[in-house]
Amino acid sequence: MNQRRGIVTVLALAASLCGFGAHIACAQEQDIPPKQHWSFAGPFGLYDPAQLQRGFKIYKEVCSTCHSIKLLAFRNLADPGGPGFTEAQAETIAAGFQVTDGPNDKGEMFQRPGKLADHFPPPFPNDQAARATLGGGLPPDMSVLAKARSVERGFPWFIVDAFTQYQEDGPDYIDAILNGYEDPPPAGFALPPGTQFDKYFPGHAIAMPKPLSNGQVEYTDGTPATLDQYGRDIGAFLMWAAEPKLDARKSLGFQVFIFLIVLTVLLYFTKRKVWYGVKHRADAA
Amino acid sequence: MSEHSIYQPQSALMQWMERRLPIASLVYSSFVVYPTPRNLNYWWTFGGILSFMLGVQIITGIVLAMHYTPHVDYAFNSVESIMRDVNYGWLLRYLHANGASFFFVAVYAHMVRGMYYGSYKEPREVLWILGVILFLLMVVTGFMGYVLPWGQMSFWAATVITNLFSALPGVGDPIVTWLWGGYAVGNPTLNRFYSLHYLLPFVIAGVVVLHVWALHMVGQNNPTGVEPKVKKDTVAFTPYATVKDAFFFGVFCLFYAWFVFYIPNYLGHSDNYIMANPGQTPTHIVPEWYYLPFYAILRAIPNKLLGVIGLGSSIVLLAFLPWLDTSRVRSANYRPLFRQFLIVWFLVVIGLGYLGSQPPEGGYVIAARILTAYYFIFLLIILPLLGLFEKTKPLPNSISESVLPAVAPPPSGAKV
Questions:
Q1: Distance CA B397, CA A98 (A)
Q2: A256 Cβ under 8 Å from any chain B Cβ
Q3: Which end of chain A has less Cβ packing within 10 Å, N or C?
Q4: B402 has pLDDT over 90
Q5: Could you say which of A3, A149, A242 has the minimum Cβ distance to residue B343?
Q6: Within an 8 Å CB–CB cutoff, is residue B230 touching chain A?
Q7: Mutual angle of helices B152-163 and B125-147, in 10-degree steps
Q8: Which of residues 158-177 of A touch B (CB under 8 A)?
Q9: Residue B414 pLDDT exceeds 50
Q10: Complex-level ipTM
Q11: In 3D, which of A17, A44, A57 has the Cα closest to residue A229?
């Protein structure tokens, strides 16, 4: 107990010692992405299939113009713990994409409609083609993007996060980027040509033009078609794309916890019983 | 330790076996009747936990190796394919990645125990040195494993750490080229790291056998640091130590499962989900949490060569603890000054860990230098001097005396 208090004291001391560094100044410059409410947060949180379907619609209609999602296959759309499309629906979606196959008997590559086993075809044949078309910028692949972005939490939050199971900083960041565009930029900010101002992007000058606005993607389930809603829906979809086995992980985790807790409690009482005799025999000696 | 009851095989089969390979009696004498001090606390359960973690890492690792492709173009995607397409691949990978962290949690607890209770002192010097060798092997194995997913942090950690050898005068650059198998970190580097990452756990297992052998020669230390003298001071390994180990093992597994199932990426770095790109350096290159104190020492020393020497000696010096510590009293419970200096040293190591995770600028550098100085001053100056000047508390006459309520007052009246 005493030691734990000591650890916290030293960590706090170290943190305050360092508070004078450039780090704090840097942190103030960049806004912290606000925490959103995610259906998949916490020990029992699972994906909301309707939300994943909306997010997929946004990816297909907007993001996929520039961003690849190479690790995702059409069959994944019908996987358990995913957007909940039927296999027939996933087949129809796949058929709507043209994928490159080959070489055929004549030694030529050819285009054919997608099948369930195919991965999502990238919008550009290679990185160089993407850069050439988009004025030098390379849009990152979106397959694991939600796990490849994080929010610097700092002391003591990084310790608190281990207890509260905060693992959603990636989707929080993606949602914040989409909502963080400011046009015109704040007075006094020299924006490099070909970039936009985003208050959550590191350095603020983002090469991606503002991709989403209110009403841009049509929703058929009565969900409000607002930028605010789009940000959360695409954030959830990208989290699923990055961590498709989250539902399976959490449900297995619950079973493992029940088992381990029962086992540990039983072992505790067994240990008490075994050692009970020792103490008494010793006392009598 | 001559009070073992001898294993007597009952069945004809076991009698036949006993005359040819007495493995049953070895197990019986080592893990059943083996006398363990009766006053061991939960800090003594980490040895068993460490063997378990080694097993977890080897078993999950062998299955992961069946699906992994050690090539710069395919490694990243093959790991993702394990996460997506291999049955329970996500579980194997998260068990293995977090398993490395919990292996280090257990080894640090084990080392803290050894230092606090003076377990390295005569006659346990070789046992301790084997432990330091095991720790070094774990450090190397863990580092190479972290490179295998070939993310941004994998690549840049490999670049930074291998480059340390270039600080050696004269031979530095040829050594680095030799380590890389080329003129930069590339496919040959990944391949040899994979090969060694598969080999070293078995070397660890071999040294563990020596470690346990040495332990059984000298017996376990205990919180008083007083050797068992009479039969009353010890209890049989089974059921007493086994059931206590088993209970705490359950507690440890709950802690481990919390990370594997609920926050599997908490201990990792998000940049490692970006494929390695030699053309783009991450903003901050940070190693895994268990290397952070040593990384902070490396960066705290302004001269590169001295920094590398500081890094290396911060671990190697531990092997010399039996001789750096001149006190004949083992347990910190009876050494009030040593206890305070040592607890501060533990806190300094945690502080260095925090500083290692922060950018090397401003106040962080100054703090890291102060803490690094204490790290070495404690080991090289305070520890040798304390043994000469410290007034220790009177030791109990026996383990039993220290743990039992004084039914009849002990004749010497030594009350602690």
A1: 84
A2: yes
A3: N
A4: no
A5: A3
A6: no
A7: 130
A8: 161-162, 165, 167, 170
A9: no
A10: 0.91
A11: A57
Cα separation, A137 vs A129, whole angstroms: 11
Which of B262, B265, B358 is the closest to A18 by Cβ?
B358
Q: Which of A47, A56, A24 is nearest to A250 (CA)?
A: A47
- Residue A108: left if φ>0, alpha if ψ -120 to 50, beta else—which one? beta
- Residues of chain A with C-beta less than 8 angstroms from the C-beta of B400: 282, 285
Token readout for B146 is 């972290």
B362–A252: do the CB atoms touch at under 8 Å?
Answer: no
Q: Does B243 contact chain A (CB < 8 Å)?
A: yes
Distance from CA of B270 to the nearest CA of A (A): 4
Asked if the Cβ–Cβ distance from B270 to A149 is below 8 Å, we say: yes
**DSSP secondary structure letters along B315-355:** HHGGGGHHHH---S---GGG-HHHHHHHHHHHHHHHHHHHH
Coil, helix or strand at residue B389: helix
Contact (CB, 8 A) for B236 and B33: yes
Q: Is B362 within 8 Å of A253 when comparing Cβ atoms?
A: no
Write down the pLDDT at residue A16: 42
CATH entry, A44-72+124-244, from 1.10.8.60, 1.10.260.40, 1.10.760.10, 3.10.450.50: 1.10.760.10
Q: How far is CA B149 from CA A72, B90, B144, B385, in A?
A: 19, 14, 10, 47
**Tokens 């000469």 sit on residue:** B388
Cα(B364)–Cα(B368) distance, rounded to whole angstroms?
6
User: What stretch of H or E contains A98?
Assistant: strand A98-101
Q: What is the 3-state secondary structure (H, E, C) of B206-228?
A: HHHHHHHHHHHHHCCCCCCCCCC
* B354–A253 C-beta distance less than 8 A: no
Give CA–CA dist B358/A262, Å, rounded.
40
Segment (H or E) for B236: strand B234-236
- Which residue ranges form the domains of chain B, and what is each CATH number? 30-401 (1.20.810.10)
Q: How far is CA B380 from CA A118, A243, B341, B383, in A?
A: 63, 49, 13, 6
Instruction: For residue A231, give the amino acid letter.
Output: G
* Minimum CA–CA partner of B90 in chain A: A245
Residue type, A29: E
Q: For A143-162, what is each residue's pLDDT tens digit?
A: 999 999 999 888 899 999 99
In this complex, the residue of A23, A274, A282 whose CB is nearest that of residue B232 is A282
Place of tokens 């840097």: A26
Interface contact A251, partner B, CB < 8 A: no
Query: How many whole angstroms separate alpha carbon B93 and alpha carbon B89?
Result: 6
Distance CA B4, CA B13 (A): 23
**Under a CB-based contact definition with an 8 Å cutoff, are residues A97 and A261 in contact?**
no
d(CA B370, CA B354): 14
Q: Where are the domains of chain A?
A: 1-30, 44-72+124-244, 77-119, 257-285
Report residue A242's pLDDT band, with 50, 70 and 90 as the boundaries: very high
pLDDT in tens, B304-346: 999 999 999 999 999 999 999 999 999 999 999 999 999 999 9
Interface membership of B38 toward A (CB under 8 Å): yes
